[in-house]
């Protein structure tokens, strides 16, 4: 048969063949088909739906085309560390976008897990594979999407609890946060942990129930990484907690130090609290930087306000709490430079991301960053007070929600076309949540809830009016008040009162003028005598902080004296950076100005060390409470001040030692340079010494001296030979 005829017949029979094949497929697919039981039929004939059938219904609802009205649906699921909240956008019965509203999981793993979002949207199904190495976070996203579409909730068990609180996603181990003991016994304790190179041992000193020093006494880690990780020690001491972030780039060593300190603290814990520290030392040989604090705030939902000091004044924020999470942080007031403040706003993003105020400041915007962090912390303290049923002072200015309402109104007026669909969906959802809480916050509060607490009387005056102010406060001081002659920080106990003098160096002019003032304390009153505006600024700053700052004179004195040292650590860090630059200059042999730059720093640090020493003696005197003017349960505040002054003095002593080392390095460079010069001169002198002898010999006026007539060429040749021989000897000895 001709080939062309065969092809022609196949083409003619193709439609009929296709129809037969399609009919066969339909017949196969319809075999065993049963008509569905509708609701009307179910009323006449009772049936039971099994769990398997329900599951099939749920699955069929989550696959393919979603029978839901167009809009945004919010759902929650459980990831590794806590809840995962998503916003699912439905349009034309299809998932068009999935946005993450909140998550408590580690960012590295959670970002990896977000790949399931693309898989869900691409397949229009929840039956997708999880991301390898981020299983718990992947399942959390899938569960949240299912909850948004079907209302079905997962078990609520976090991946962390399933893995025994030891392993992180991706089969890496994490050093989880612990509840530190309430009190420690004084003494010296040793603890061990596991660093990168093996066992790491530390010595922890406890004094007055506080961690005063931590020293690494044994380790096998690389020195460069360990030196970097030892910066963690200062953070542990300052926070009096091992729940601190590890040092980036030295994770293994950092976690080794944390584990060792926890091991030591477990021994120091007062009976009954030993279990509050980790029951076992976790192996950190394969740890990852995953120390994010969980974002579970057990506070009453609402909008809370916090105030803190920025660079140019106070920063005020409104914090929205819902579902035990920070839903929004809105800045209602600030006076800082816009350029730096916008840079500092990254800390707000990190607070939202980590659901924690334990975040790093933004380099180059330290003051604004700390202001934002402290403002959020103060707002959370207010939330804690409200949750615990404590009353707070009425503050109409702080309670004013007009700024928050204005911010929300501006957000609502944003045009959708200016944003991507997904971003606008998230923004709209957040604003709806905030509006609900704002409406709930407008409920009236009874007068009893705003009952004002009794505060001590604090008098601020100058030396011209000091006598009459002291008489009003019931304080008798027979000596003459001479502020200009105050040269030390000290406390003197008199019969019925306590007299203190302060001589505070100006941090920007340590070697220059100082702030000087008197302080008088009796049983009921505090009198401060200051001829400048320094104390007035401090007290105004204390008043602006949304905490109980003045309910007792002990608390007031704590806050007043604490303000003296509030920014000292930043100044000391600046000194350290200057010394680091000098050390680099010395290493690069740029030593022309080192001496002139180094000497003022040493003098300033010496002055600061003396000042901190005086402050330690002063606060210790307050803590001793010789006259019984303070409540015993309030003396802890003065102990905190003593510890702070002690840490600052220790830091200053370390900087002085560093400055001495820089000076020694500089002197070593100078000595090496002089030695090189002397070596060069010695070589020259040695070479010319024999030549001098020859010239001296032939310079004698003898009549019959050999070679007197024609010896000049021979002398020249001899001199050259001597020079060559000397050079060869010096080269062999490696002198030149």
Q: List low-confidence stretches.
A: 14-63, 163-173, 272-294, 392-399, 416-422, 441-454, 546-550
**Quaternary state, please?**
single chain
How are strands sequenced across the largest beta sheet? 12-16-15-14-13
Q: State the separation between the terminal residues, measured CA to CA.
A: 104 Å
What is the overall shape? extended
Average pLDDT metric: 75
Q: What portion of the residues fall into strands of 2 or more residues?
A: 15-25%
User: What's the domain count?
Assistant: 5
Main sheet summary: 5 strands, mixed
Structural class: alpha+beta
| Helix residue percentage | 40-55%
Number of strands: 16
Number of helical stretches of at least 4 residues = 23
Rg over alpha carbons: 39 Å
Report what the structure shows.
With 736 residues, the protein is an alpha+beta fold. The protein folds into 5 domains: 118 residues, Alpha-Beta Complex (Sufe protein. Chain: A), CATH 3.90.1010; 102 residues, Alpha-Beta Complex (Sufe protein. Chain: A), CATH 3.90.1010.20; 146 residues, Sufe protein. Chain: A, CATH 3.90.1010; 210 residues, no CATH class; 62 residues, Methane Monooxygenase Hydroxylase, Chain G, domain 1, CATH 1.20.58. Helices cover 48% and strands 16% of the residues. The chain contains 23 helices and 16 strands. The chain has a 5-stranded mixed β-sheet with strand order 12-16-15-14-13. Helix 21 runs antiparallel to helix 22. The longest helix is centred in the last third of the chain and has 63 residues. It starts with a helix and ends with a helix. 31% of the residues are buried. About 16% of the residues have low confidence.
